[in-house]
Design brief:
This protein has five helices and seven strands, in the order H-E-H-H-E-E-E-E-E-E-H-H. By secondary structure, the chain is of the alpha+beta class.
């Protein structure tokens, strides 16, 4: 019984330490990555804006549901391993700039992804910049020290690159 108590106390102390360190971390962060893909800016634009086709090339998305546009802005829900997330396209300048905001107030995080697409040697340079906020201190710790701020961006860019290298565009 004593070992169970010591184990539980150790786990509680670790969680408290993680929460304290997480509370010292800034709520806001900026992360950015870029990759050159073998497709024109127009083709890349079509891929990142045709949300209904995301499940065909993004392994983290199982289903997409379009929502009614609000104030002329496209909105949709992505469903994946982590559950459902709602997004709104805040700014759209085809085929070079797209700003998408996480639009679910119940999530422990939020922010925008800015996609910049420029021609690059017969293909396109795709730069994604995340301006994010993480409200929960435990999530802040995990994002900063375990997952990294750029992990989701890197996965997205890898999937986009794979889509075009496989000739499925």
């Amino acid at each position: 019984m004593r070992w169970i108590f010591i184990g539980a106390l150790t786990i509680a102390a670790l969680v408290a330490l993680v929460a304290i360190v997480g509370s010292w971390l800034p709520r806001s962060h900026r992360a950015s990555r870029e990759r050159i893909v073998a497709a024109s800016p127009e083709t890349v634009w079509s891929s990142i804006t045709e949300v209904e086709a995301f499940p065909a090339w993004r392994s983290d998305v199982r289903k997409v549901q379009r929502l009614p546009d609000g104030d002329g802005r496209r909105a949709w829900v992505e469903e994946g391993r982590s559950g459902k997330m709602t997004f709104v396209a805040e700014r759209s300048e085809p085929p070079r700039l797209l700003v998408v905001r996480t639009a679910d107030p119940d999530l422990p995080f939020g922010g925008t992804w800015t996609y910049e697409i420029t021609p690059a040697g017969g293909g396109s340079r795709v730069t994604i910049t995340e301006d994010g906020e993480i409200y929960n201190p435990l999530f802040r710790f995990v994002a900063r020290f375990i997952l990294g701020y750029e992990g989701t961006i890197a996965s997205y860019l890898a999937a986009l690159e794979k889509k075009f290298s496989a000739g499925t565009h």
